[in-house]
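From the thread on structure requests for the teaching lab: each student submitted one protein with a one-line request. Submission from student K.M.:

"Model Nicotinate phosphoribosyltransferase from Halorubrum tebenquichense DSM 14210, tokens only."
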Amino acid sequence: MSEFDIVDAAAVREGRATDAYFERTEAALSAAGRNPRVVAEVTADQFPDGEFEVFAGLGNAVELLAGRDVDVHAIPEGRLFDGGPVMRIEGPYLEFARLETSLLGFLSHASGMATAALDCRLAAPESSVLSFGARHVHPAMTAAVERSALVGGFDGFSHVAAGELIGREASGTMPHALAICFGRGEQEAAWRAYDEGVPADAPRIALCDTYSDEVDEVLRAVETLGDDLDGVRLDTTGSRRGDFRHIVREVQWELDARGRGDVDVYVSGGLGPADLRGLRDVVDGFGVGGYVSNADPVDFALDLVAVDGEPAAKRGKLSGAKSVYRTADGAHAVGLADRSGPEGAESLMEPVIRDGEVVAGDAFDLSAATERALADGEAVGYGSGE
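Reply posted by the TA:
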């Protein structure tokens, strides 16, 4: 048994992280001496329906398929889609049959979280938004959570080990536990300890709602840390929050009245896009947790659409290899790969693996993926109806 119930990378790469029926499929095809050359496609919806989602998880998918006798086309990470394939795999079926479970898991979970992140990003486009959701998932999933949040446009995240994997530095303030360790009425001691203990380049952001009224603690933090105070965070539990917007406006008013309008105000605690829209004009930044980390995965499926050069599909799925396009008016279009696309449309599919070799360019580069998500969100009017 592995530590912490973690299925290791070797099991994923070797295809042991699979559903049992793929092992049985391999056994049946091998016994029959059959291994057809197929085209398989990963799709969520067959036809465009106007409900766009963000494609993410491509880097892990490419890592899984690289070095195998396959060609792979995909839409680049960060692009928005609402129908048709996001990935096409061509090769002998037994080259990748048992990888389907892990492949879909990589894409489904990351795409769902990146879509939720874009919901929040566009709800408060001028605010700082950080991912605080790592605590809601198995530790093995934290890097996927934080990376997906960045794909969707978040400015940062909280998880240290995830940052080491992603190559970005984690951010954070202080927990209520720090104040509680010093005791009721000793919040000043906690703020001073934080100021003295953390690295000099870390922003001095005081948590100001542990024991008393938010305004009271904010003003005490200002008095304690003076000009060293960069910001305050309000993480008041929902059961005691009341009119949160009014609380934030009162805090801002009292800060301004004392000549400390330079102190930024951050809020966190069970926030989603509606909260961000309602607070974005009075708040400098947000910490968003469960809305992203607990997002529903995109319901991707992998289907065979051609066998030995002939179109094929199960009932309800569309046969034949397909391409997808972004039309001039921002719509999504799906067509057969051997036909011309809509006039003036941009083809979204591009090669990421050719004869087993990765040829992806920046198709899953994190910074490029974020830029694509924001640009595509604008192009298709994502979130404009909110």
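TA comment: The first helix runs from residue 9 to 14. The mean pLDDT is 95.
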